[in-house]
Amino acid sequence: MNKQLLSGDEAVARGAWEAGCEVAAAYPGTPSTEILENLATYPDVYCEWSVNEKVALEVALGACLAGVRSLAAMKHVGLNVAADPLFSAAYIGVRAGLVIVTADDPGLHSSQNEQDNRFYGLFAKLPVLCPSDSQEAKDFVKIGFEISEEFDIPVLLRLTTRVAHSSSVVTLNERAPKPPQGYEKQLQKTTLLPAFARVRHIDLENRLDRLKAYSENTPLNRWELNNTDIGIICDGVAYQYAREVFPDASFLKLGMVYPFPEEMVRNFAERIKELIVVEEVDPFIELQIRALGLKPIGKDRLPRTGELNPRIVRESLLGSTTKVTPEPNIPNRPPALCPGCPHLGLFYSLQKQKVIIAGDIGCYTLGALPPHSAMDTCIDMGASITFAHGADKALSANDPRPRLAVIGDSTFFHSGITGLINTVYNQSNVITIITDNRTTGMTGHQNHPGTGKTLMDKETKVIDLEKLCRACGVENVIKVDPYRLQETKKTIRKVIAEKKPAVIISQRQCALLAGKQGRTKKVDPEKCIGCKSCLALGCPALSYANEKAVIIETSCSGCGMCVEICPKEAIG
Amino acid sequence: MNLLVCGVGGQGVLLFSDILARLAMAAGLDVKKSEVHGMAQRGGSVTSHIRWSKKVYSPLIEEGTADIIVAFEQLEALRYIHFLSTAGLLIYDPLRIDPLPVQIGLVEKMPDEVLQERIAARAALNRAIPAFAAACDLGNPRVQNTVMLGAISHFLEFPLSFYEQVINQLVKPQFVEINLKAFATGRALLKENLPAKK
Fold first, then answer.
1. Residue B35, helix vs strand vs coil
2. Which tens digit of pLDDT belongs to each residue from A151-170?
3. Which of A167, A327, A371 sits opposite B32 (nearest CB)?
4. I need a surface site. Which of A144, A157, A331, B69 has the fewest CB within 10 A?
5. For position B197, what pLDDT does the model report?
6. Phi-psi bin for A406: left (phi > 0), alpha (psi -120 to 50), beta?
7. B130 — alpha (psi -120 to 50), left (phi > 0) or beta?
8. Is B55 within 8 Å of chain A by CB?
9. Which residue, among A440, A416, A387, A380, has the nearest Cα to A76 in the 3D structure?
10. Which of the 8 DSSP states describes residue A271?
11. pLDDT tens digits, A370-421
12. What CA–CA distance (Å, rounded) separates A156 from B158?
């Protein structure tokens, strides 16, 4: 048998491939991104970056109804975007299997919230599987496809960052291809007109009843009966922490948390003196146990925010004898825009302007932090333009500050374009700045409709942002090079002064892709007067010591933005 | 074995921990590795937890229980030092990379002496390995991680032949030679006995 060390994401990809999955679609988002990146490296699977998660799920649903096993992957907040088709998919069901992966982010390592997507199972009426390591991640994908086909329902596979991004040993198997079933029109099943949908809802409830019976007996939910003084019910990575802290306790490990195996839980609880539920973030399992009239220890002791870890489980449930505290007062190391990042130039140019700037989700969200402080909001993908529009309507002429929106190219394709159309149609004076770095920067450089390449590395049509914005009805569309600071600043000022809707496309390739832009710059200490003007650029290669500016040679990308800023021509 | 690696985005923390995890796997052990790299490329603080044993449950190391901490940068060494067990070993690169808020003067810089004192106070068993400087001398700052690997190889149970195997597997062919050199350099940098515990 072939064993490999795989991350949870890699294991999901492997599992999908082994299960004969033929179509997979996703929009990149930490911690889910690597699923499709890895799946695309296997032969025989069509993989795509869809423009957003709703599209990805609809693509996968279409493919499964056309008879091949399909997968859609996204981060937790991505499932909000895809929630509309998610609820319909439960009614419609599948033809070949459909697995929907949601990668939740307890602890907010790289997200705007820490929502618990197990609730989507309860809400949208879909079975939910929660693996606790990479081996299970792989196995559960395969079982997920089987459940999906047996019960005619999409299956939600819920990872968390700690499962998606931790690696453990996985036993590999070969691919078991499934013969495609072809497409067949099933009007009453797949067309959710009210009359048909009413029937489908009844059918869905029946499917859920059958799934409930399955959940009571599946080996996905298993007992580990040891000392019965303490019995712990848990799922996902919480199982690993609890197992570590309570080596002698009895466990009911839930791999399938919805539909909830009530009888199994009751039987387990009967043998146990003290029942404990260990789960991350929300009391999803605990609520269902309490609904049975049982009173476990759970969120009254364990935190509802952040990730768990062995220490938190230990301290919450056993109390602590030796508290280990981190060293105080160590300067934080927040993420920063890279040396030579084109966004640095844009945000530098936006500094000190009296404007309201609605931000969006991407690297450029970091522009909200000092030294730029060039952003007022960050809400969700696509919310920049729409927020600015709403603010414009609310403030009307009473507040003279111009309303700006800053959004990345990938995010614009994801959900910015609808907002832009809305500003034009509903007439507000929003100035939209598209920070076009020719890639999806934050998640590790995925392609999108503006790059001319697909996930599977095929050449494709490039969607021209400038023409697109014009086609949306914006007459004033201007391109700037953010490396040219004075010019960018002048353009922004001019556009603001015109007081009409506009789009500024700030275009330069992501510095990490572009590599070195030129010679490493140096500070002439004779000429440098220590005015710190250059530090306002926020470039991590620029520093300050002994009352002079310093350029860190190993970091400098040679872009030359600082050269333009220096009033004494000390940088060159 | 509980081994924690920390550093700054771009320093090769993740490849380093990949190599270690594969070494443990090659030795037939159960291994789990966990890292946070959501914004790592943006110069943030990066950590990786690696655990190996007959059977490993948690992918995270509990505070106060790391057998070894390998830090690629001094401030990061101090940031994660509470993970070290009382008998644990800290190997760190005396390299100093101040965070952006310090660089641009928003946050006060911690003097080197203070930093060193605080590290020593909390990790009785510690050793500074100038891996970054050594990597620069070798002509490629990016092999800092392999220099560190050579240094800690003294304290791990794996045969030397495993390292070469795994480096061959994980490093691009054109960089294998310099990585093997870096490994030897790291081993040489830490060859004397460690100072006795206070």
1. strand
2. 999 999 999 999 999 999 99
3. A167
4. A331
5. 46
6. beta
7. beta
8. no
9. A380
10. T
11. 899 999 999 999 999 999 999 999 998 899 999 999 999 999 999 999 999 9
12. 41
ipTM of the assembly?
Answer: 0.92
For residue B101, pLDDT over 90 is answered with no
- The tokens describing A9, both together, are 């994401």
The pLDDT score that the predictor gives to residue B43 is 75
A502-511 core/surface letters (b: 16 or more CB in 10 A; e: else): bbbbbbbebb
User: Looking at the DSSP assignment, which residues form a beta bridge with residue B50?
Assistant: B3, B33
Q: Which of A5, A109, A538 sits opposite B22 (nearest CB)?
A: A5
A109, B36: Cβ pair inside 8 Å? yes
- What is the mean predicted confidence (pLDDT) over B61-68? 95
Digit-coded pLDDT (tens) for B102-121: 988 889 999 999 999 999 99
| pLDDT confidence tier of residue B198, bands split at 50, 70 and 90 | very low
Nearest CA in chain B to A335: B44
Asked if the model's pLDDT at residue B196 lies above 50, the reply is: no
B residues 131-150 lying closer than 8 A (beta carbon) to A: 141
For position B39, what pLDDT does the model report? 60
- B8, B33, B99: residue with CB nearest A167: B33
DSSP state of A155: E
- Nearest CA of chain B to the CA of A74: how many Å? 15
State how far residue A337 is from chain B, nearest Cα, in angstroms: 6
Give which of A161, A278, A327, A534 to mutate to test B binding, by max B Cβ within 10 Å.
Answer: A327
Who among B42, B60, B78 is closest to A366 (CB)?
B42
Rg, Å, chain A Cα set? 26
Using an 8 Å CB-CB cutoff, list chain B residues near A309.
58, 60, 62
Torsion angle, alpha carbons of A347, A351, A357, A359, to 10 = 30
What is the DSSP code (8-state) at residue A37?
A: H
Token pair of B159 as six digits: 């045969």
Give the pLDDT confidence score for residue A323 in this predicted structure: 76
In this structure, the dihedral spanned by the alpha carbons of residues B148, B151, B153 and B155, taken in order and rounded to 10 degrees, is -120
Pairing mode of beta strands A70-75, A98-104: parallel
Closest by CA position to A60, among listed A119, A129, A148: A148
Residue of B nearest to A314 (CA): B62
Q: Rounded CA gap, A28 and A48, in Å?
A: 10
Render pLDDT for A268-288 as a digit per residue (tens, 0 to 9). 999 999 999 999 999 999 999
From CA B19, how far away is CA B167, in angstroms rounded? 7
Please name the residue that has the structure tokens 């939740």. Answer: A104
Spatial distance between the Cα atoms of B188 and A186, rounded to a whole number of angstroms: 71
Q: Each residue of A19-36: b (16+ CB within 10 Å) or e?
A: bbbbbbbbbbbbbbbbbb
Nearest to B63 among A311, A370, A544 (CB): A311
For residue B41, is pLDDT > 70? no
Give the Cα separation of B109 and A232 in Å (integer). Answer: 47
Which ranges of chain A have pLDDT less than 50?
none
Residues 91-120 of B with CB under 8 A from A: 98-110, 118
Flag if B59 and A237 touch (Cβ within 8 Å): yes
